[in-house]
Amino acid sequence: MSPRAAFRLLEPIAVRWADVDQMGHVNNAKYFTYCESARMSYFAAIDLERHRLERQGPALVAATLNFRQQVHWPAALEVGVRTAEVGRSSFRHEYVLFRAGGDEVVAEGGGVIAWVDYAAGRAIPLPDGLREAIRRFESGE
Length: 141
Prior knowledge:
Layout: E1 9-14, H1 28-45, E2 56-67, E3 76-86, E4 90-99, E5 105-117, E6 122-123, H2 128-139
Antiparallel strand pairs: 1-3, 2-5, 3-4, 4-5, 5-6
C-alpha cells in the first residue's frame, strides 16, 4: 500500500521562488508553513469552527519536522495530514510531505494542537463534538 493512502487529506503545495534560500533549496521554515496550510484544510474538513466558542479554540503547542530530501524550485508537493492520537485536551497530527503525485517523502513530522481557554491561557478538555468529528473524518464516515 502506498504511504499516501494513510492520509484522507493531501494538501497540494506549489513551491514558490520566494520559498528558496541562498543555498538554492526550500528554506526549512517554509516546510512548517506548508504543514500549517494542511492543518487549516484539515480544520475545515472537520468543521472545527463549529466547535469554537468566543474564547476557546485550537492552539499549536508543539511542532517537529525531519527533513529527508532537499527540494528546489520549481516543485510541487503534497502534505498528508492525519490525526494520530486524541487526548483529553489535545490531539496529535502527523504530517508527511511528498513530491506531488508520488510516494517520495521529502519531510515528515508532527504537531500537537491543544484546545485552549484563551482568557485563562490554559488547555481545557476537547469538546465531545470535535472528538466525534475527528473520528468520523479519519474513519471515512
